[in-house]
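User: Hey, my collaborator sent me this sequence without any context and asked if I could get a structure. I don't really work with proteins. Can you help?
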Amino acid sequence: MIFTSDEDLAIANEYSNLGYIIRPNADKEAFKWIQKSAASVAAGALNIEPPTDNEKFLNEIHNLVEPSKLNDFRLKVIQGLNALPEFRLMYFRLAKPYLEAIVGNELAMQQRINLSIQMPNDTSSLLPVHADTWSGDSPFEVVVWLPLVDCFGTKAMYLLPPTQSAKFSNEFSKRGGSSSESIFDSIKTEVEWLEVKSGQVLVFDQSLPHGNRLNEETETRWSMNCRFKGVFTPYGDKKPGEFFEPITLRPASRRGMSYELPKIS
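Assistant: No problem. I've predicted the 3D structure and written it out in structure-token form, which is a compact way to encode the shape of the chain:
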């Protein structure tokens, strides 16, 4: 028998069936802090005053940054955010109850949070179809994906659901092809486009094929992503101390990790 609340069970079942959950941010003040900080750091990188409407500013950043300078701009913004001592704690607070229902309450968190900025019709920010496990990540990881603006249509990301993903994996040698584009062509009618609004958070299974396409909307996408996993679950190529850091170790675990049997002379 599994002892869990009805709410946690509903989250767990939804995640298992869909490969993801979309929920309101668990801490609204943490989201406001992150969105405001992102807009302020971005304005600083452009040597302009912080905006009065953060979301409008982020949505329209393509009017201020040329595509050729986007990556340098993005790096300045995420480096500035990762330098803020509160940033990772605020990010964790957005999804804490959902992570505890899906992963557990002793967690390791990615040390540096990632940022994606995808301008309208910009081909330089495409993320080809992939599963993180294909490049050595642990299947025990989940991704917390946070939009700072409404993400819909081609401004959103897509995911291949678990049932279709299992079928694709079994047929990979036949359907995989020789490029990421041929892989996408073989699954494009089966993927699910995930509409996630500003003020919501997405937690998804990074072992499922996912990615984005050309943003054909009129607004710029801003989204962040960060991996979490159980501290004591197997690690892939990304190791604790190098990529992950324990954030919620409990006293019994700390005690057990440092325990030594009595020495017998």
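In plain terms: Residues 6-26+98-232+239-249 form a domain with the Jelly Rolls fold (CATH 2.60.120.620). You can pass these tokens on to your collaborator as they are.
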